[in-house]
Each structure stands twice: as structure tokens, then as C-alpha cells.
# Entry
Amino acid sequence: MPPELRTERLEFLPYRPEHEDVFVELLRDEEVCRWMGQDLVPEPQIREVFRAILTDIYPQGRFDVWGLWLAGRYIGHAEVKPTGNVEGHELVTALAPGYWGQGLGGEAVRGLLRHAAENLGLTEAYGMVGAENTASLAMCHRLGFRHLRDVVGDDGSVTKLLVIPTAEGGSEGASRRAVEATALTPAPGVGTTDGPVPAGAPGATGTAGAAIGEGLAGAATGEGLAGAASAGEAG
# Structure
């Protein structure tokens, strides 16, 4: 079971059985799926994924998964998990659209980076962000992520593989600067560059947009729920 984490505004809480419906609602949102680079998944499959968190991922200690809460309201999802793209860990976050553009995606990623450094002993983290997710890419750049290479899918889609030192992205000074920049810099079509955050990007442990799981189905097999970039700083 992962530890509870807190940032200035967010609580990272392990999932409980009563959270199933809000988890399903998040992952059935068309815009969240769009920025995660995946099609809508049937509700029964999402419920299967959620139950796998409780019955397999947590008991087996496969990787760390949380619900994100703001002032008592569920607003998103976060993960730190091993990634098959490189030898390392990926950060993943996905926020409900109503919470995009408020700097929360960057705050969530920084919380994951601190956890990765202080609790997991990681010196760097990875993220995957779709090439078209310019808002998330801009946010990752502000946080200190560096582009490693492009990953081209079978369908020709391009995803950016990013890396960041955990100490850099999780530092208090970097957090403050990124929050300020996110709040002030607009992004076309999103409102602010906070906008769809790359799930998985920051920390390469996935941060905002990429995909919840390298496919949601992967969660049940322990491969992850979110994948690499979060939806929206898309939170």
C-alpha cells in the first residue's frame, strides 16, 4: 500500500472500495481519454481495472497508485511505476477537466517526484507525452524535463520520452517557479499551459497526459493504469 502524500493543495490517497464510481467517471471522460491518447474503454473493463488495484496491485506491491483529492473532492489519478520504455520509473497523472489550468497537474507531478526521491530512492524519473500535447510539453519543460527521444507507435503517432532528475523537479524553488509560470502562461485551446498535462511526462514516471496505463487493460496485469502522460495538466 503506498503512503499518503500531501502537497500544498493536494492529497494523494490510496484507493478504497468506495472510490470505484469516481474512478470510473474520470476514465470514462472523453477529454481525459483524448489527452491520454486512448479510446474510451467500456465501463466494465474500467471497473475490472479498479478492482485489480485493490486485489492485485496493492497486495502485491506492484507499484504505487493513488487517487488525487482537493478539498475533499476526487479530482484525478496518479502513479509511479516501472516503465518498459527505459530502465527506470514513470510518473503518471490524470486530472478531471474541471481542474485543468490551475497548476494542479504540475503540483501533482512535483509531489510524485518528491516521493520518488525521498521514499523510493530514485534519482530520476521519466514521462511520456504525446507530441501534440503542447500544453503538457511546455509544463514539463518548465519543471525541468529533458527530451530523450521520440517513440513512434504502430499507427504513426509520436510520443515524447522525457526525463528529469527527481531532486530538480521536486525542489521547493522549482515548484514555486513552475506554479507561477503555469498560472501566467496561456496555451492555445486550453486556457493555460497547465492544460492537458502529460500524464507520465514529468518524472517520466508519467505525469499528465499520456495514457492511463499503457492501455487501461495493462493495469490488471500490473503494467500500470496510466501510462505516461497525464490528461490535462489536464490537469
